[in-house]
């Protein structure tokens, strides 16, 4: 027999539930209405780095993420507090990344860079070298809104350190890892201090390079790297997730690469006293152009085919700065004027010096742009970075210049945007959460006045910037 002593009639049950809800509302202030924060961008053209242009869309943002991207006529479930934004005639694309920046390279700019990045639609950056404690503190201390900042800590160098701080014009961005046995503890300490990835530099020995890579893999830290001078791109590259500047690939692509490498290795072994910066600079000066002049396409194809899982961050903007002179662009004065006065004065003195020198050898500049087409042909991924603020790199502004050079080198505008959105997310294994204008992605978005797919220069037509669902520039 069923025991019904504690059963309630339906009407009685409803009354009990209503009273309970009322009591909870009184006690804890619970809200029975909608709690999801919604923002609807209407009548906008969506520029996605994968699917291209889709016209007349509506994009619903909920609690910092993209909840829907639909035709403008589709009916969406909206609450009464939805914020509406009319994007008619405008273009909505993902927030851009700069994959190669240095916040603490120029102290006059350190605390200005975050705002400048947002002004130009850069919502995420990868800081590729500096004191880990200083960078971690800076990331925490910068006021919101600020870009998403990912840090590597110092450049991991060898017995000699290129950026050792000896010259006040070059800050102490690096640290020495003199032997393989020190690699694991070094990487462990960096991760504990807040590093999101590691950066391996040019004077590290091959055995130490291998040990650093293994230590990073053990801790699930991505690896950015220069090609160490004792190695070639095809031996070092496959161990890294990204390689920077296209630097030292020219040696590996030369018909006499073995001879050049042997010369380089002997010189490094015989270097027992002096500055790491001078050692590196001398090798680049003596070998870079001769290697390019001995370019062997078949050999280079073999090298590039080993790099199909290693993102190349060409920093064309930096590689061409002395040859193509960004300060001669029409939009340069206005961009420079946004920097602190101390920065403007120092940079203007450098510009005046560049104007007085004879034309520089354009070989590396031209070769860097030429190599973009070869990377594309061999299926090597490309990421957009600038090395800002090194080499007159205006934060934010320079990323758009980089996109222009990538297109000049052979990329389509859509491929260039992919390099500044999806590829950086892939480096951090976050491509399922950021980098596109699709459902489920973090709502880091940029509203443009013109279509960047018809002319990449339109990426500069920034009218509004959204960071995690909040307008931070309007």
List keywords for this structure.
474 residues, alpha/beta, Urease, subunit C, domain 1, TIM Barrel, eight-stranded mixed sheet, six-stranded parallel sheet, 18 helices, globular
What does this structure look like?
By secondary structure, the chain is an alpha/beta fold. It has two domains: 100 residues, Urease, subunit C, domain 1; 339 residues, Alpha-Beta Barrel (TIM Barrel). The protein is 37% helix and 18% strand. The strands form three sheets. Strands 1, 2, 3, 4, 5, 15, 16 and 17 form an eight-stranded mixed beta sheet that branches. It has a six-stranded parallel beta sheet with strand order 10-9-11-12-13-14, with helices on one face. A three-stranded parallel beta sheet has the order 6-7-8, covered by helices on one side. It is globular, with a radius of gyration of 26 Å. The N terminus is likely disordered.
The level of helicity is 25-40%
- Which CATH architecture of the largest domain is right? Alpha-Beta Barrel
What gyration radius follows from the Cα positions, in whole Å?
A: 26 Å
Broad shape: globular
Strand content: 15-25%
Estimate nothing, just give the exact number of structural domains.
Answer: 2
Query: What class, by secondary structure content?
Result: alpha/beta
- The CATH class designation of the largest domain is Alpha Beta
Quaternary structure type: single chain
Give the strand tally.
17
CATH topology of the largest domain: TIM Barrel
Number of helices: 18
CATH superfamily of the largest domain: Metal-dependent hydrolases
Determine the mean pLDDT.
Answer: 93
Tell me the span between the first and last alpha carbons: 70 Å
- Largest sheet at a glance? 8 strands, mixed
Q: Which spans of ≥5 residues are poorly predicted at pLDDT below 50?
A: 1-32
